[in-house]
Write a structure and sequence with these properties.
By secondary structure, the protein is an alpha/beta fold. Helix content is 34%, strand content 11%.
């Protein structure tokens, strides 16, 4: 037990170093920041695609890849690495707080994949007001669908957008076996959406996969939601405000906290048009 604790401590030290690496000032910081957080293992899914996709959509701010995995092993990150993920989220929250202190008029957004969505939510929890995060986009989230996001939302001035697919074989297989990144056996948010109290239904938007997204590269699988066309044409609407062009309107979704609804039930109940899940 003592050796296990020592390993976790050293991993936390390493991830703090990883988070601090390459964090010097960037000229684009004067236009805002968007962080991208990869999934367990930090294997690089979506890193280049986020940079090019958002830039092509007109985003002028700084895009930062937040590295948090000290093991580069998805199974370890998803299990014994959970404390490290939480520690990395706290580190990111401190960095965001410092950035907003220096640039109070600039927005910070977060886009995260898989286990990285836990890091994103924990970062929001750690932000110190008056600093805040604008929008948070969760892709293939391995966070529990029942995770209480109220604390995170208190430091978010926009919304949380959760992209949901019942075809995600990583969430249906390995994550279901290993548990969610927050250490539960609940259905992952990437399969069932985030279940929120009704008073938060305008703050959390669960968006189901639709075949219309296939032309942008998202087939409903775990990582292709980071394809460059999908970033440019779909995800960028949560990050980029184009002059004279309003973003696509997405109706908020309400998922009963005490409901025993499965991912399959959500798929059946969701509108065929493929936008926000609304089960009210």
């Amino acid at each position: 037990m003592r050796s296990h604790t020592r390993i976790i401590w050293w991993l936390a030290v390493l991830v703090a170093w990883l988070g601090a690496a390459g964090c010097g000032p960037d000229p684009k910081d004067r236009f805002g920041r968007t962080y991208y957080i990869d999934g367990a293992g930090n294997w690089g899914f979506g890193v280049a695609e986020m940079t090019y996709g958002l830039a092509d959509a007109g985003y002028q701010g700084c895009i930062r890849n937040w590295r948090w995995s000290p093991t580069f092993n998805p199974a370890l990150d998803q299990t014994i690495g959970r404390p490290v993920a939480r520690a990395s989220g706290a580190n990111l929250g401190r960095e965001i707080t410092a950035y907003r202190r220096e640039h109070p008029d600039m927005q910070v957004n977060i886009i995260a994949l898989s286990a990285g969505t836990g890091v994103a939510v924990w970062a929001c929890e750690a932000v110190v007001p008056p600093a805040s995060v604008h929008n948070v986009v969760l892709l293939g989230s391995s966070l529990s669908s029942k995770y209480d996001v109220r604390r995170a939302l208190s430091h978010i001035d926009g919304q949380i957008f959760v992209y949901v697919s019942p075809h995600d074989q990583i969430l249906l297989g390995p994550v279901q076996a290993l548990g969610t990144i927050d250490g539960t056996s609940d259905t992952a948010a990437g399969l069932a959406g985030l279940r929120v109290p009704k008073e938060l239904q305008d703050r959390v938007v669960n968006i189901r996969w639709s075949r219309k997204y296939e032309k942008y590269g998202w087939t409903g699988a775990h990582t292709d939601c980071t394809s460059e066309p999908f970033v440019r044409h779909v995800l960028a609407q949560h990050i980029v405000s184009r002059p004279g062009e309003a973003p696509e309107v997405l109706q908020p979704a309400f998922v009963p906290v005490d409901g025993a609804m499965t991912a399959a039930d959500l798929w059946i109940a969701a509108p065929e048009s493929g936008e926000a899940l609304s089960l009210d």
